[in-house]
């Protein structure tokens, strides 16, 4: 009996997990659920992540030039302001893609509940929505997304690099016995005598680094996401109200003229969002309780993904760094071989020229000697 209860508890726990819910959806709706609901957001999130990390890699050298020459073990390490600025720019680039996707996702969920799933997939809904309402409408609330992603990603990368640097400095301190002067370490870096980074990918320290970065990210992302959810809820309510007042031909979407007057509608939505946030903060007992309700559980869930993400990021960065250095070494080796071949050719040409001159002088000397004998 007890074993059956334990089994039922495990089954219930499995059903509330992500894998359990996906398995249940496949069982009830078929394998097509994967292609309609799982693959599109998975591909889009992968693309957004690649934009984030690629932008960070290419913008960090602007604020910390030493990163240009060695990405894996940059010395001196990038300071927090440089990493924060690069991360903020990367977050801004990410928001250009994330903002319309979030808007379309919320609109699709509202449409699915209100109209019984007229569109079977988000891709078909996105095409129809963009065609009828225009691109401008899906960028409503972009300012919120830009602020959220810029600040959150700036802290995300900044905390990651800062915590990693503390581990590196501790490693050097333990290795040499004392904290060496920064100028001495810079000289050793130029002489290539610094030790390898102790926090290599796979080191347990990356889990702690990922945890710290995830908490820092959620500290900004979580409260602003609460505000953004209210913004989208107000937009959905305004859309429903407009649909009731619109002609029958436009019952599924806001009419074109109202949707394309984005500035006035956006300002109205921001005002409504602010009023709703103030009301909920008062009813919740303060802004902190309102913005950070259930924050701990969300931050804990974000830790594994952040740790794995940074692990893959470091692995790929080191691998690309190694390939770049190998390519540079091959180019240098080829250049040196070419220089040696040219030098050998020059030496051979000089040797041949010297032999020809010696032969000519010997011939001229013989000719001169024969003429003297004839005169005598």
Can you describe what's shown?
This protein has 376 residues and is an all-alpha fold. The protein folds into 2 domains: 1-30, no CATH class; 37-304, no CATH class. The chain contains 12 helices and no strands. Helix 6 packs antiparallel against helix 8 (205-245). The termini are far apart. Residues 175-180, 182-198 and 248-260 have low confidence and may be disordered.
List keywords for this structure.
single chain; 376 residues; mainly alpha
Layout of strands and helices, then pairs:
Layout: H1 2-16, H2 18-29, H3 32-63, H4 80-115, H5 122-133, H6 142-176, H7 182-190, H8 205-245, H9 256-260, H10 262-284, H11 287-291, H12 295-375
Helix pairs in contact: 1-2, 3-4, 4-6, 6-8, 8-10, 8-12
Membrane topology: Multi-pass membrane protein
Protein name: Mitochondrial carrier
Solcar repeats: 78-166
- Shape category: elongated
Count every helix, treating DSSP H or I runs of 4 or more residues as helices. Answer: 12
Q: What is the total number of structural domains?
A: 2
Helix content: over 70%
Structural class: mainly alpha
> Termini, distance in Å?
137 Å
Computed Rg: 34 Å
Largest sheet data: none
Q: What share of the residues does DSSP label as strand, in percent?
A: under 5%
Mean residue pLDDT: 75
Order of helices and strands: HHHHHHHHHHHH
The total count of strands amounts to 0
The stretches of 5 or more residues where confidence is low (pLDDT under 50) are 175-180, 182-198, 248-260
